[in-house]
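Below sits our specimen:

——
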Amino acid sequence: MSNRVIFTGGPGSGKTSVIDLLCQMGYQSAPEVGRKVIQAQVKSQGSALPWLDKVAFRDEMVLEEINNYENFGGTEIKFYDRSIIDSYGYSKLECIPISELLLAKCRELDYYRKVFIFPPWEEIYENDAERKQDFNEAVATYHKMVNAYKKFSYDLIEIPKVSVKERAQFIISKLSDG
């Protein structure tokens, strides 16, 4: 069993807040690559941004996801704010052709088979410097992620719309169940 535990869903559904709390509780996490790519591209005045070049943005995310996988392993549980499968889902969302590298890595990289999916939650959804999608796009992203993870035979566990602390406790209890 892999110890790489994925959080997925649409943007603005509370994934990062739960990961932050889990890290405060002593767990480890890999960085969320979408924000990392956007911040690096803005800083370097690059064009691999979702609002400028979706293919280049996706390709940068794929490379970062591979990097995360290679650098954030070990024997302890690691929480991943998205995974390589999300890059596949993003490609489907944006109607971008799937690269052979992406498809191969979706099949090759081994994560914990139970994936925690955060449903769209309009009451907590907010835009910021890196998140420019509207709520309808967040909902569409959620549905593409459901389809992507099912395609690669992951079991989805939907996170309830409760407090951050209750969400973290829910996740820990599900991991304890095996």
User: Anything to note?
Assistant: The mean pLDDT is 90. The helical segments are 15-24, 33-44, 54-71, 84-93, 100-108, 135-151, 164-176.
